[in-house]
Structure prediction request, 439 residues.
Amino acid sequence: MSDILKKDKEFVWHPFTQHATERDPIVITSAKGASLYDEAGNEMLDMISSWWTCIHGHAHPKLNAALAAQAQAVPHVMFSGFTHAPGAELSEKLAQRLPGDLNRTFFSDNGSTAVEISLKIAYQYWKNADEHGRTKFLAFDGGYHGETLGAMSVGRGCGFFKLFEDLMCSIESVPYAHTWDGDTDIERKEEEALAALKNKLSVHKHEIAAMIVEPLMQGAGGMRFCRPQFMKQVTDLVQAEGILVIYDEVAVGFGRSGSLFACEKIGVVPDMVCLSKGLTAGYLPMAVTVAAQRVFERFLDQDPAKMFLHSHTFCGNPLACAVALESLNLFEEEKTLERIAHIEARHREQLPHLQAHPSAAQARVMGSVLAFNLRGLDDAFKSIESVTLRDWFWERGLNIRPLGNVVYLMPPYCIADEQLDRAYAGLFEGLEQLARRAA
Ligand SMILES: Cc1ncc(COP(=O)(O)O)c(C=O)c1O
Prediction:
């Protein structure tokens, strides 16, 4: 056992890990592009972009250079009473790229804090207008928004957080219209979901501060896609009641859906957007909650109590902002959206094979994401079967990590055709393996 592994086993407490039963972690010593390398030099293709973050691939020279240059200038300074070039420029750039008046960036550290902040802004937005009855949030069944208490509350429908339910804040939930390629029942599902939403709004509209959604793709809940027109109708219905709509684009933002942001593809201007993961291209923990100017203005007052009552020590960290700025530049320099369109086309070539496979169901592609369900496999998150399958992929040099019975690819955008071919071959080999076991 290597020295690193010994130290890890003695001192580290890993996320989402049952240390009594989990296999030893893989020690990664270097990473480049779409590849990770272990201590023995074995290559593993990072087909899920290390929890969906490293959008341009690992150790990109331009991102490395931006980070190093910022470290020489200002690595960190508190963000209350002080500002700096990468923070101001990144906020400007996000405002330019996001639609409508989404132009006020509040910084934090991770996807959960971005969500928590959006919920607190929504709550205080109504308090600042002396409307005190809006104490609930509306969310979709099956949604996931992170691990802090507010985020768990609005994500309770994903089923991960039963243990913590007594601690949660009050929410209402509505059904989501999940779809896939070749789904013939989607019109009915959408009609039913919209009818349930209308019903919910008619009863609870004066109690709800905001609705939070993962637009176009429920990620951790199982890569469940919906159609843009459905999400637009939902957004329009909720905004028509004056209720704020929060787009949690932590997973889908920065190109995953094929557009830079899902709200762009849907054609709406939500009241707030949460971004993280791809924001710093997987380099540093940072998130933003971008609010519409009209939301921001509700907090302007001579009374200090009306300011937004929230801060984090590392708000607006300059190193993270500098990398995020460079990452946005790369979208133009490397024509990243074209690369994503190419990945989508490659994924789509796999669809007929998946649709014809007896072990796969509900095959679906959106932007750089390919997903399908495995027939007959336990759908519980981290079920023994899904962990066995993950280990099987790992042994074949592919970082593919099923979510219960859902297998998906979400590669870095720099991935080469030959690397995609290796991943597809591994997927189909895995499917054959399962089919043989079932026979
Ligand atoms: C849609 C969504 N929101 C929020 C989060 C939470 O982000 P983090 O893990 O950075 O706290 C995630 C994480 O997967 C996510 O997918």
Q: What stands out?
A: Residues 110-112, 115, 144-147, 214, 219-220, 248, 250-251, 276 surround pyridoxal-5'-phosphate (CB under 6 Å). The first strand starts at residue 28 and ends at 32. The chain has two domains: 3-56+335-438, 64-332. The mean pLDDT is 96.
